[in-house]
Amino acid sequence: MSGEAAYQRFFPTPSREAQPIARVPGVLAILLLSLPIYMQVFQYLKDIRAVWAFAKISPLLLLPVTVFGLVFLKLPYRALWLLLMIYLLLVGPMLSMLYVDASFLEAAGSTVKIWAFAFYFTAGATFLMLRVSEEKLSRALMILAVTNFATLWILWIVMPDSTYVTDITLTGMFLWDQERGPRIMLPLVFGLLGLVWMARSFSVRPSIWQPALIVLCFTLMFVIYKQRTVIGFSLLMVLWAATGEIRRRLPLFFWAGCALAAAGFIALVPFLSELLGSSVRDSLGGSLTVREESGRLLTAFLEQRPERWLFGMGGTTEFNTIQLPDFFRKRDFFLADLGWLGTIGEYGLVGSVLIAACYACTLREAARAASLARTPFRLALQDLTMVLILVTAFYSVTYTPGQIATVMAIVIYLQSLPIPPPPPARPGVVRPAPHRHGLVPRPVAGRG
């Protein structure tokens, strides 16, 4: 029996017709355990070493599931994803050995952070093997969103002041600095999904509880989380999501309002600049200056030889004998703080273009999944993808690549499910026939 035939025997191709999905015991529990791993919630949780170590090696532990998804599933963009991983796994280590004098083991260790790109195949295989329904998947993600913010609040209450440190190499969560004071850098990817989800729900069916919860969540982020870039882009996307129905029904009114607001802001810029002076720049606590200096050093190094712009210089880990801060003689030099410039520095323009293509394809498929059924959940996945793209302007795209890979798997899987009945169309509205593909097994030769 061939491999594909064996797969068809145990996981037959689901029908395109709307029908109940076979139940697998414990689906919700498995999703609640696996999704945080795929989304790399524990990837930098150094404070709990066992959990941190498990998160680092989880792509290896889940390799059989990954191979299963790669070999047996009819996944779109499989060639792009494989090309990206081959490039990152081979070129990056070679360059780190060349430029940073890393040993073979040190160079291989620098690839750990990009293993999670493979979670595209892992998560896709998980969803299909479990026969997850959209309702079950959305319920799991909502539970994780609530848990995300609840954990942030509980940690803020129970952790003593002595927990917070100024050295980022000693902790993954509990930081203290002079400008912002104590803060908890808990990964909030599920919480951000919950925020735009509530905003989309408010857009469709307004109620007092959605804005009340959104304000509460942003209050926790401002008081405890304090990651300005993430908060700013999240607030922008929440406003965008909350006005979704207005944009659809009154586009002229919406864009005219945006134009007036933009014109008013531009008119106030000279007054605000004179009033605030350098206080805005000073409030960044030197982080902008650090990024500017690091960017200048990296750019100067890349400009020495053209091929460095094309292929980068590789990366290091905290276990390398010579690390990038040592190489550039700057203690607070981190490629992860330089956004796309840091990605170019590590993987070159070639690797950056491949990664950008994966992000663009994810946004395209998230929009396609939302077009098939404009539910708040699917629209929120599209908004979350946009947030993940926006933050790459300041944070490395390889910091937590499992997030974009998992979102891609989710939106592709949703396209394979029966389409929910659409709401009645307004008079004069013609619904286009949807284009869809899905996360289904490859067809077996000889089957009808």
Rg, nearest Å: 23 Å
Number of helices: 20
The tally of strands reads 4
What is the 3D form? globular
Largest sheet features: 2 strands, antiparallel
Structural class: mainly alpha
Output the strand order for the largest sheet: 1-4
Contiguous runs where pLDDT drops below 50 for at least 5 residues: 1-21, 423-432, 442-448
Our estimate of the beta-strand percent is: under 5%
Termini distance? 18 Å
Provide the domain count: 1
Query: Roughly what percent helix?
Result: 55-70%
What is the N-to-C succession of helices and strands? Answer: HHHHEHHHHEEHHHHHHHHHHHHE
Mean pLDDT over the residues = 82
Features:
448 residues, mainly alpha, two-stranded antiparallel ribbon
Report on this model:
It contains 20 helices and 4 strands. It has about 450 residues and is an all-alpha fold. It has one domain. The strands form 2 sheets. Strands 1-4 form a two-stranded antiparallel ribbon. A two-stranded antiparallel sheet has the order 2-3. Helix 11 runs antiparallel to helix 19 (about 375-390). It starts with a helix and ends in a 7-residue tail after the last strand. Residues about 1-20, about 425-430 and about 440-448 have low confidence and may be disordered.
Task: Record the SSE blueprint.
Blueprint: H1 3-10, H2 27-38, H3 49-61, H4 63-72, E1 73-74, H5 78-99, H6 104-109, H7 119-130, H8 134-158, E2 174-177, E3 181-184, H9 189-204, H10 209-225, H11 228-242, H12 244-249, H13 251-276, H14 279-283, H15 287-302, H16 306-311, H17 324-327, H18 339-372, H19 376-390, H20 401-416, E4 440-441
Antiparallel strand pairs: 1-4, 2-3
Helix pairs in contact: 2-7, 2-8, 4-7, 5-18, 7-20, 8-9, 8-10, 9-10, 9-11, 9-19, 11-19, 18-19, 18-20, 19-20
